[in-house]
Amino acid sequence: MKTTRLTKSHIQKIYRPANPKTHKGTQGHALLIGGSYGKMGSITLSVKAALHSGAGLVTAFIPECGYQILQTVVPEAMVITDMGHKHLSNIQYEIEPNAIGIGPGIGQEQGVQHAFHEFLRRVRKPLVVDADGLNILSQKKDWISLLPKNTILTPHPKELSRLIGEFASEEDSKENAIRFARQHKLILVLKGAPTFITDGNSLFQNTTGNAALATGGTGDVLTGIITALLAQGYEALDAAKLGVYLHGLTADLALPETGTEYFVASDVIRYLGKAFLSIAKSPPRK
Ligand SMILES: NC(=O)C1=CN([C@@H]2O[C@H](COP(=O)(O)OP(=O)(O)OC[C@H]3O[C@@H](n4cnc5c(N)ncnc54)[C@H](O)[C@@H]3O)[C@@H](O)[C@H]2O)[C@@H](O)CC1
Ligand SMILES: Nc1ncnc2c1ncn2[C@@H]1O[C@H](COP(=O)(O)OP(=O)(O)O)[C@@H](O)[C@H]1O
Ligand SMILES: [Mg+2]
To answer: Nearest Cα to 197, choosing from 231, 227, 238?
Structure first.
């Protein structure tokens, strides 16, 4: 399959600057579902990244033990807690988000698997599934059919091999991932160096990013960025392309200032403003 490189001009055709008259009610409501005891950092990073990617409202759905952490670290986010103390057990909420991201830090316990299954049976929104959400799907392959059309999956190579199996070469793995995306009508973000994106019919290769991103939590941040873009009404493939490009661009912009070693996942969020500004064709309108 022909590979299209995601250049700045390709991305500039996707990016839509905010309407000056917009308000938080029209900027999209992103719901991020994740976390467990010892892994609240993952969903906190996703939530923060969504807020810094233009979502008008962001809600976190987390196990009860994360309540104070979330409310303290990210006062801009709203929080709904699960009945489960350390892990998710029953994903129920009364809000109507425009997009949902699920998976970072949730673990794969029985109770979590059950809650995830019940969630999948009901969900009808634009969706991103990452991390342990993908690992659970790998164990329960028949749940893949419950994913809404154009759901975005964001596996790293290990998560991908759990999902579609091991192959002799990266090329074979990519070919099979493309087939998987086509068969299940999903968008796959094949994270790596570089990241590829496919909807099963076309394949895109990202051109941003560097080794500074090789640090825990940068994938959790990507989940928050893409979910926020979906919530703002970007089509799934566009949200994946724009999100992946901006995510890598933060590391490229940071590199001369931070170097590789110093850079952490929070720095992706810190440089998101500069990344958005550098793809804008003109300064933000008043
Ligand atoms: N601060 C936090 O709370 C963090 C929580 N995290 C959560 O921890 C859980 C486990 O996620 P992990 O991804 O760490 O565990 P996994 O077991 O899914 O993946 C780690 C394995 O994948 C391999 N791998 C990763 N990227 C690779 C690449 N580009 N090429 C080849 N191999 C690669 C690693 O070598 C390692 O063997 C998830 O729920 C995740 O969301 C992580 O996101 C890290 C940060
Ligand atoms: N050497 C690298 N060059 C470019 N991007 C990288 C590199 N290493 C990691 N990344 C990016 O960092 C992110 C890591 O995601 P992931 O493995 O899910 O991390 P975590 O689960 O810890 O948040 C992916 O977007 C991946 O493409
Ligand atoms: Mg990850």
So the answer is: 238
